[in-house]
Specification:
Length: about 775
């Protein structure tokens, strides 16, 4: 096929779409079901309505092939676990009794049964449920969901492409099941899994699927020759099937690297590649592999992870270069649009000119269609769109919002000494022990307490004018008094104020920093029914005035015990925002760090002796390729130290991380030079404590003993057992006792019971320690 005919065949598509609905209808229906207010049939009807609305919106915009199977009631990796029959033994009875309740039990656990482990989906802030596999795992096909959703789309008269997590990525994401040796490699189950995928593919073909998409994002990471050979074998075998649809293998989030020639040679029918940040590398590798003769190429030229408008001329240049390298070139976003909000047009509080710089899922769909039209029919057919796009890009580049000379001058003046504490850790630790007077195994929480209906109502009342600022602040003070009183009565050693004034750990700060924009409807799924509104980091960052000092100081006035000041760190402020793409991330991180440094210093000056700077996104933002790690970790750790290094030796600096593979960044955790780190550990059975010990981590650590992402209340003995396991790796004089994460998503009754059990466990194990 010639370049001209390839261009003429160009079509627009997407890999996935946000699930929640414009008003988070899915969240409300699921949580209503959990509380017994919504029936299972009503929940299923809501989900079906949302799927249909998504597909219609895509089709109406000009998308030629809509995705199916990407919609989930909790997580698409968990859906894959159901599809391949890999339900853990402890959940099989619940799934057999009621498939829906069993599904949610795997996600959330029950009072009697622990859920699957949760961790981050590559370098995004989406969380998936980790498959648990072992040598005895038996896979069985269950394609009911995938087939049913395909038929729903077909009933609307739409061309649909089912989307599945690919078999190689599924196994690479999995971990050994409890009781299975830690060195078990789930990828050894590939030959057992492929026949199940073959059966699902046959079912989808029988249901009318012309194409099926198999997502293999794990192949953009560094992979061993054995793993690449497994990928080659998987797609050799699946491609050789006679009873199958056409196969499209999709990669995203980075360059495909050594896996590209493997997939290019496989007997598959199409390949989807990320041509945003990885454009040059993927283009060069594709050309070196000889292109994809006779195959379909989907070019992800619209960024599916960020919210800035596309540069049409740049994308069309990339698309034009790809013509001739494949039988057919189609246009898409770089990944599923799951990672962006639904519709920028719903934002009424953002300046209209600035709003033109933003593209959410609906706007990205239009961009994809416009680019496909320009590629197929020529740029003359989109001349007006190109002119408007050029004007909007120029408006952003020239805006005063994006360039503040004072902020840039301060960042440029930073020296290495600004990122170092005045004394080494050993001397600081002695000063802090003397100043704080804490017992062995001190207890604390991560920061937030339950965000009650009353708190949310207070914020709504303030926004609508039903109460004034004084009335709102009185409600916040009342909540802080209750939280402090509860912690004192429970016996917690280092208290928090509970963060009742905060809507979100990033958004709260973003709303008080210059250079950030807040959205009203920019919801994005983090996990399950947890949705966040990432702020937009649009320009240079500074802090006009203190952000947390008042409430921390008020809590301090209520107690003689230490109260932690709570901040979100610079890396997480970037990772959980839609970050600007017009300067290096390290430059932006330094600006945020300097703003937070001012806050840390003000907290200390107000009498706060313990300050926690949370960095849960440190591992999440780690680049997917090892060759990119060092540069990232250099600016990431520097920005943390710049935030925290201006305090006195006796001021104890904490940090917190959760739900990631910490073993990959233990040296970076060490390089932060925090005095205390708390980490998620309950679902992973204290794995991180062992990783810290293996590294020789010299500071204090609190591996979590209470899984806060499940509604179950851990018993005191369960927490004590985890604590004893922690003591096998971390000595008592450096071990803290805390939950995995903040408590804002939990209810008060379960929080109270769990923290009481946590304190009981600490006291029990403390009593077992040998006398000093």
């Amino acid at each position: 096929m010639t370049s001209k005919s390839a261009a003429a065949a160009a079509r627009a598509t997407v890999y996935g779409y946000p699930r929640q609905g414009a008003n988070r209808e899915l969240k409300k229906a699921i949580e209503g079901y959990w509380k017994g207010r919504v029936t299972a049939d009503a929940l299923r009807a809501t989900a079906a309505d949302l799927r249909a609305a998504n597909w219609r919106q895509l089709a109406d915009a000009g998308i030629h092939e809509v995705p199916t199977g990407d919609f989930s009631s909790y997580d698409h990796v968990l859906d894959t676990t159901v599809m391949v029959g890999a339900v853990p033994a402890r959940h099989r009875a619940a799934v057999a009794a009621d498939a829906l309740d069993g599904y949610f039990a795997m996600a959330r656990g029950t009072q009697d049964v622990a859920p699957l482990e949760m961790t981050k989906w590559f370098d995004t802030n989406y969380h998936y449920l980790v498959p648990e596999l072992g040598p005895d795992t038996v896979f069985t096909a269950n394609s009911a969901k995938q087939v049913a959703e395909l038929k729903e789309a077909q009933a609307l008269g739409l061309t649909a492409r089912p989307v599945l997590v690919g078999p190689v990525t599924y196994l690479l994401l999995a971990k050994p099941a409890p009781g299975v040796p830690a060195d078990f490699e789930p990828l050894t189950l590939l030959d057992r899994l492929l026949p199940v995928y073959a059966e699902v593919l046959a079912d989808l073909r029988a249901a009318g699927a012309a194409w099926v998409q198999l997502d293999e994002p794990a192949l953009v990471q560094d992979r061993t020759p054995a793993e690449l050979n497994a990928a080659a074998r998987a797609y050799r075998d699946l491609g050789a099937l006679t009873d199958r649809p056409k196969l499209l293998v999709a990669s995203y989030f980075d360059r495909l690297g050594d896996a590209l020639p493997v997939l290019a040679k496989a007997p598959i029918d199409g390949l989807a590649l990320d041509f945003t940040d990885a454009a040059a590398a993927n283009l060069d590798a594709l050309a070196a592999a000889g292109g994809l003769p006779g195959k379909r190429l989907i070019a992800g030229v619209v960024n599916g992870r960020n919210i800035w408008i596309n540069d049409f001329e740049k994308s069309l240049t990339t698309l034009g270069t790809l013509l001739g390298l494949a039988d057919r070139v189609d246009v898409a976003a770089s990944c599923s649009l799951l990672h962006v909000p639904i519709d920028a047009a719903a934002e009424r509080d953002i300046d209209p000119q600035i709003l033109r710089w933003l593209a959410f899922a609906k706007q990205k769909t239009t961009e994809i269609v416009t680019l496909a039209k320009g590629l197929s029919q020529g740029t003359d057919t989109i001349a007006a769109e190109l002119a408007a796009n050029r004007a909007d890009l120029a408006s952003r580049a020239g805006s005063a919002l994006t360039h503040d000379p004072a902020v840039r001058a301060r960042a440029a003046a930073v020296t290495g000494a600004d990122g170092r504490r005045s004394q080494p850790y050993a001397e600081r630790a002695a000063a802090q022990r003397s100043h704080l007077g804490l017992p062995l195994l001190p207890t604390t929480t991560i920061g937030s307490f339950p965000q009650t209906t009353e708190l949310r109502a207070a914020r709504a009342d303030l926004r609508t004018g039903r109460i004034d600022t004084a009335g709102y602040e009185q409600r916040i003070e009342n909540e802080i008094r209750e939280v402090v009183s509860f912690q004192e009565k429970t016996g917690i050693d280092v208290l928090v104020h509970g963060e009742p004034e905060r809507n979100d750990m990033v958004q709260y700060f973003a709303e008080q920093l210059t250079g950030y924009l807040a959205t009203q409807h920019g919801w994005v799924q983090s996990y399950g029914t947890r949705y966040v509104r990432p702020p937009v980091l649009a320009g240079d960052i500074s802090r006009p005035e203190p952000m947390t000092v008042r409430w921390t100081a008020y809590a301090n006035s209520l107690t003689d015990r230490p109260v932690k000041g709570m901040l979100t760190g610079p890396v997480t402020m970037l990772a959980w925002s839609f970050v600007r793409d017009d300067q290096p991330l390290g430059d932006t991180a330094r600006q945020v760090a300097l703003a937070l440094r001012d806050e840390v210093n003000d907290l200390e000056a107000a009498g706060t002796s313990v300050i926690q700077v949370d960095e849960p996104a440190l591992r999440e933002t780690l680049p997917l390729r090892a060759t990119d790690h060092a540069a990232y970790l250099e600016w990431a750790t520097e920005s943390f130290r710049l935030t925290t290094s201006g305090v006195r030796p006796e001021t104890q600096i904490h940090t917190h991380m959760c739900y990631a593979e910490f073993g990959d960044i233990v040296q970076a955790i060490d390089d932060l030079d925090a005095d205390v780190i708390s980490l998620e550990a309950a679902r992973s059975h204290m794995q991180v404590a062992r990783e810290l010990a293996a590294h020789g981590y010299p500071r204090e650590a609190g591996p979590g003993v209470y899984d806060i992402h499940s509604p179950r209340v851990p018993s005191a003995e369960e927490a004590a057992e985890l604590l004893r396991t922690g003591l096998e790796a971390i000595p008592a004089e450096r071990l803290w006792v805390n939950p995995d994460c903040g408590l804002k998503t939990r209810g008060w009754p379960e929080t109270q019971a769990s923290l009481e059990n946590l304190v009981t466990a600490a006291r029990t194990v403390r009593g077992e320690l040998p006398a000093s």
